[in-house]
# Entry
Amino acid sequence: MAPAAPKSGDVIFASVDRVNAELFTLTYGAIVRQLITDLEEVEEVNKQLDQMGYNIGVRLVDEFLAKSSVSRCVDFRETADVIAKVGFKMFLGVTASITNWDAEGTTCSLILEDNPLVDFVELPDTCQGLHYCNILSGVVRGALEMVSMKTEVTWVRDMLRGDDVFELQVKLLKQVPEEYPYKDD
Ligand code: MYR
# Structure
């Protein structure tokens, strides 16, 4: 059966979504540019973006759990998968894939082939050490901390540096067991 013809409302929503996505991308670019002007050192900009992301990540989990029907994950593997497939889709509009698991199941890579943050972006030579998308590593670290997983999150591949994909390595450092708030007598 042929797909239903779009109604006028569909067209309006499609363009509003596209405009919002572009506004989001350009706003993020403006923030990064301002940080570069204010902080001067790219390492400082990387730190600041990571911290901003972390602050967002710790707040994002509540919204994620409220909006998604995801139930508690049994382990880090499942959590990584949920972040890649559900979390990224919900907040960034794209899904990531998970690969490169180590034997212990404590380190993996999150691969992004499509990243709306970098549309229209080209880094000048003076910004070669910049992790332009460092806000994302902070978000992932902050969100995981809220579900009791202390992690180290680092960029391994970056399309703005000529790589074929974005690769974010997520290493589980410590899993704090959640305490039941009431004592059983
Ligand atoms: C659980 O309760 O065990 C599930 C925990 C899932 C945490 C998912 C947090 C979502 C983070 C989204 C990151 C988006 C980055 C753009």
Helices lie at 8-39, 42-67, 76-92, 134-146. Residues 8-175 form a domain with the Muramoyl-pentapeptide Carboxypeptidase; domain 2 fold (CATH 3.30.1380.20).
